[in-house]
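About this split. The held-out portion is used to measure sequence recovery: a designer receives only the structure tokens and must propose an amino acid at every position. Recovery is the fraction of positions where the proposal matches the reference. Here is one held-out target exactly as it appears in the evaluation file.
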């Protein structure tokens, strides 16, 4: 089983593309153990008030919630640290976060062409 950190924009992209979570993840990493930072969960909660269809209950049910890192303020920084430290890719479509992940030795999973997931490693 592979840990996969979920970023808010990555989850939104996955739901908008209407990809099946299990089969899409299985194609790129095998069985995924989703990990959700508290701050990302809060961000998704705010987004879901404005945008319907984000399937937050599914995400929350399937994820291990990870406490925010002490002394680190921004979720992207936390995701970068956790990805590099644990070898967990981040589900994201954020260009700046993807660049930082590669620079710091992390990896990411992106929604490509709106039809499939792709794993990018440093």
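Reference sequence for scoring:
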């Amino acid at each position: 089983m592979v840990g996969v950190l979920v970023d808010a924009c990555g989850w939104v992209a996955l739901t908008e593309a209407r990809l099946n979570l299990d089969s899409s993840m299985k194609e790129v990493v095998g069985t995924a153990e989703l990990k959700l930072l508290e701050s990302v969960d809060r961000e998704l909660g705010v987004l879901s008030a404005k945008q319907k269809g984000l399937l937050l209950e599914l995400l929350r049910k399937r994820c291990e919630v990870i406490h925010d890192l002490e002394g680190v303020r921004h979720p992207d920084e936390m995701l970068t640290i956790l990805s590099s430290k644990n070898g967990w890719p981040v589900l994201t479509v954020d260009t700046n976060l993807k660049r930082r992940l590669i620079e710091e030795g992390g990896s990411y999973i992106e929604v490509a062409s709106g039809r499939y997931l792709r794993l990018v490693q440093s």
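Annotator remark: The two ends are 20 Å apart (CA to CA).
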